[in-house]
Each structure stands twice: as structure tokens, then as C-alpha cells.
Amino acid sequence: MVGYVKYLEDIPLFNLDLKCLRSLAERRGLSFNEISPLRQILPADEILNDGVDDDVHLWQLTQVLSRPKFVSQFTKAGLGEQTESFSIYGKYIDGKAFFAFVQEHQQERQMLLFDAVEELSTYVVSRYASMNTQAVPPETGFDSDVDHFIFTLNVIDSIRRRYLTGLLSGKHIALEHITLQDYNTELDFNLKNSDVRWLLPSALRLVPKIHRFKIEFDPEKIAYDPHYKLVTKYQAEDQGEILFFLSDDIKKMGLDFTHHWKYALGFDFRDEVGDHGRYYLAPSDEINHFFELSGDGQCRYRALGFNELLERLELLFETAVN
What superkingdom heads the lineage (predicted)? Predict the structure, then answer.
């Protein structure tokens, strides 16, 4: 359940140029680490207005952005959606965790300062995810690898295209299976087009540095995990046409993405040592589809309600700041 959080108007909000924070940091003797957004900024010619030394929240924000423990960079895009980016930085100050939400807005940088991971997570999930509060059965998820992540998204795109083609032509097209040819036609389209209205191009564009994974795009070369139950590969003994039979779960996912999905977010967690996981969140009106990609290429997929996603993000932010 969602715990107590401040009203949004009680969260410190700043509309400042980072040059001002750089000037304040230098004047107060702060240094900058490798992931600080202030590191490459030239200080402002003029110091901030009088009275800034008395602004406790501004000083806390400056400390977070000077030497953050982690940075998480988010990008959002989708059907009819304007591309949106923001970053979250975290750091402990005097034994308390603080988080800075930083976003460009109309040529101005807006920054929010949170002093509780619950408040930060509630803000992010409330603003960018589905508000569905029903618990989701855990068996709808799977644990596999990045190849299955790519395969799953392309299969769902194939289902969506088949459904929409039938709708436009007035014909009923069965969704029991797709052929290898159908899959490869969709894959060819998705790899040639950076159209974020389709899942696979959306993930390839939004998930930070996803191309660092060694991805196998050819479905005939994927080592299919026995625990992966969404799609079953079939080929007759006479080496006839390869078919991919669709489970009820992936057919439901395909129709959910067809009717109820509009945008997705890709994000990561990074510190001075390196990257620590990449993530793809595709909320629909019905549920939050959440894919987690670890550094070794493992993939964890879960369909999460609002509360489950909130708890998951709280844990991710807590782990990153610690």
C-alpha cells in the first residue's frame, strides 16, 4: 500500500540554471565526481541572489548534484507522445538519503528535491505508470535473457500488426500462431525503422546502451529456455514450415498493447564504477509491463499493478543510493 507522502506543493521545487549550482558548489568548496551533472558546467559569472546560504534545501540539492552516489536516466516516448527525458540523482547527506529529480522544461531546468525514497517512487509511478491497483498473478512473468526480451517484443508487434491488418481489411485473422516468415518480416521492419509506436523499436531506442548486449536477433539461433512459456516453437518432422504457437498469456499481452498502450520508458542505474541494470517500462491502461535487464544479459519480466511497481522502484532506488 502507498504510505504517507507529502503533497507535491510541499516538495522543494527549483527553476535554476545548473551554472548557479556550480557557482554555489565552488564557493562552498565542493568537488565533483564523474557522474555529477555540474562537472562540465561553467560557473555563472554572478553568484546566486543574496540569501541562498540560508536556503537549506538549495544547499542539499547542490550537495546531491555535486557528488551523487548514482544517476538514473529516463527517456519516455510513444504514440502521440512528446519525447521526454529526466534524470534522478541520489546521495546520503548526514545519514539521510536525498534524491534530486532533474528535468528540462521549456528551456528551463526544473528540479525537485525528495528526502524519502517513498515520496520519489510515488511521484515517478503516479506520473508515468498505470494506476491499476489489482494484484497480478506472478505466473504471468518469466525469467530468461535479452534474446527472449527482443523475441517477445517482436512477437507482440507481430500480433498487433496481424490484428490491425484484419481490422482494416474486414477479415478475421487467427492469432493462434505466427510463421517464421511473419516474424522475420516484422523483425526486418522493426530494425529498419525507429518507430516508437511499435514495441521493439521503442525498446531499442529508449533502453540506455542496450546495444552493448550481444543480442541474437535470428529466432532460429535462440536457445529457447524451457521456463519461457509465452511462445512455443514447432517444426514438423519433414522440416516443413516453422511455426510459433502463442500462449493465452502472450495473446492477451498482444491485445493489451494493441488497445491500451501509448508510451514506454527506458532507464538505467549508473554510478562511478559502471552500469547496474537497464529497464523498460511499458504501462498500458490495464497493467504495467516491466522488463529488467541485468548486466550479464538476463531478463526478468513481470506484469505489475501500481503498488507492486511502487515497491519495486523503491527497492531499486534504495539499493542504488546505498
Answer: Bacteria
Q: What is the pLDDT of residue 37?
A: 94
In angstroms, rounded to a whole number, what is the distance separating the alpha carbons of residues 35 and 265? 21
DSSP string of 301-314, one letter each residue:
EEEE-HHHHHHHHH
Spatial contact of 174 and 246, defined as CB atoms under 8 Å apart: no
Q: How far does Cα 21 stand from its chain's mean position? A: 28
The residue written with cell numbers 534504495 in the block is 318
Q: How far is CA 249 from CA 230, 253, 255, 288, in A?
A: 6, 6, 10, 15
pTM of the shown model: 0.91
Closest CA to 277 of 320, 228, 307: 320
State yes or no: pLDDT of 221 exceeds 70.
Answer: yes
25-61: pLDDT as tens digits? 988 899 999 999 999 887 766 555 555 667 899 999 9
Integer CA distances (angstroms), 178 to 29, 75, 159, 163, in order: 62, 31, 8, 12
In order, the DSSP letters of 25-44 are: HHHTT----TT-TTTTPPPP
CA angle 151, 316, 109 (to 5 degrees): 95
Report the pLDDT value the prediction gives residue 109, as an integer from 0 to 100: 80
- In this structure, how many other beta carbons lie within 10 angstroms of the beta carbon of residue 163? 18
